[in-house]
């Protein structure tokens, strides 16, 4: 069986947040509203970025999607099911449908790469040995680490560790992959390669990716849609693919547009230079 994300509800978004709220009680007795009545739809197969200044509520919002944080109010629907209404065992099953990767990889240091990736499948207890073996190999191939199957995390670079974490998250064939600052611990070149891998994975298996980042360049390189958060609210969302003349409501939105414009201009200029070079070469050959 080939690796593919699960069948989805025919229409409607794969993730729907409906007026979700989350507050935290602070040690001084005050209550802090980290997420304030956020409603957001994310389409199946999308690559969706969540950006905002530090403390804007991005990670909390991401963690509401798999109920690592339970909302104080509002509904969280994934694949059409309201997670807030599920029993503990139903939620455990549902979490197989929502993979997650973290900034610090969170691998088991004393377990091999194979065992790290197999972990969620073994815990779930519903897969045969052969099935687990095949899935682990498929997922490691998907992240370009097939040959590292018998190594241990300590023998891997940061980028490789994050790839193992992605393979682990994908092993249960989730519909959704949540990524919380997955490249923050990586250098620029490793970040680029990892983002390309995430993009390839999205294209190959159609898994919906939601990524929290504070780096605009990550959104620009990876995402199709972005939502910008300020003080616990989503202030705007838009498609990242191409520069737009639509006025942006936030400074980050304007900065992101400027980045997209610069990339489009660079690509245009590179193409023009290439065309001019080809025309000159043709002239020389002709003469
Ligand atoms: N468990 C908690 N208890 C108390 N306050 C919390 C808790 N978790 C988050 N917060 C607070 O909620 C706010 C939003 O946190 P969150 O981590 O979602 O922000 P963020 O946008 O991801 O920020 P950063 O980019 O710095 O990680 C912050 O002010 C944070 O201190």
Automatic annotation (TrEMBL):
Record-level Gene Ontology MF annotations: ATP binding
SUPFAM superfamilies, per database record: P-loop containing nucleoside triphosphate hydrolases (SSF52540)
Any Pfam family matching the protein: ABC_tran
Keywords for the protein's UniProt record, in alphabetical order: Amino-acid transport, ATP-binding, Cell membrane, Coiled coil, Membrane, Nucleotide-binding, Translocase, Transport
InterPro entries for the chain: AAA+_ATPase, ABC_transporter-like_ATP-bd, ABC_transporter-like_CS, MetN_ABC_transporter-like, P-loop_NTPase
ABC transporter domain mapped to chain residues: 15-256
Ranges in coiled-coil conformation: 249-276
Name of the protein in question: D-methionine transport system ATP-binding protein
Organism of provenance: Variovorax ginsengisoli
């Amino acid at each position: 069986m080939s690796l593919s994300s699960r069948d989805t509800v025919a229409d409607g978004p794969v993730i729907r947040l409906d007026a979700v709220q989350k507050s935290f009680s602070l040690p001084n007795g005050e209550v802090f509203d980290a997420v304030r009545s956020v409603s957001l739809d994310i389409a199946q197969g999308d690559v969706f970025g969540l950006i905002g200044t530090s403390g804007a509520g991005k990670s909390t919002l991401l963690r509401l999607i798999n109920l690592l944080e339970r909302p104080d109010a509002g509904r969280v629907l994934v694949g059409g099911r309201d997670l807030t209404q599920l029993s503990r065992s139903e939620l455990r099953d549902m979490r197989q449908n929502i993979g997650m990767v973290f900034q610090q990889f969170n691998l088991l240091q004393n377990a091999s790469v194979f065992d790290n990736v197999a972990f969620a499948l073994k815990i779930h207890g519903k897969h045969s040995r052969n099935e687990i073996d095949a899935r682990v190999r498929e997922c490691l191939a998907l992240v370009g680490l097939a040959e590292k199957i018998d190594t241990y995390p300590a023998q891997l670079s940061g980028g490789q560790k994050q790839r193992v974490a992605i393979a682990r998250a994908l092993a249960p064939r989730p519909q959704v992959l949540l990524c919380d600052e997955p490249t923050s611990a990586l250098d620029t070149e490793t970040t680029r390669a990892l983002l390309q891998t995430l993009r390839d994975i999205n294209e190959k298996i159609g898994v919906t990716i939601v990524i929290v980042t504070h780096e605009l360049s990550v959104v620009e390189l990876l995402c199709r849609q972005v939502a910008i958060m300020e003080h616990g609210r989503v202030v705007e969302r838009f498609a990242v693919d191409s520069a737009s003349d639509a006025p942006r409501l936030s400074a980050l939105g304007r900065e992101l547009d400027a980045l997209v414009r610069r990339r489009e201009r660079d690509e245009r200029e590179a193409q023009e230079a290439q065309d001019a070079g080809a025309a000159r070469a043709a002239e020389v050959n002709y003469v």
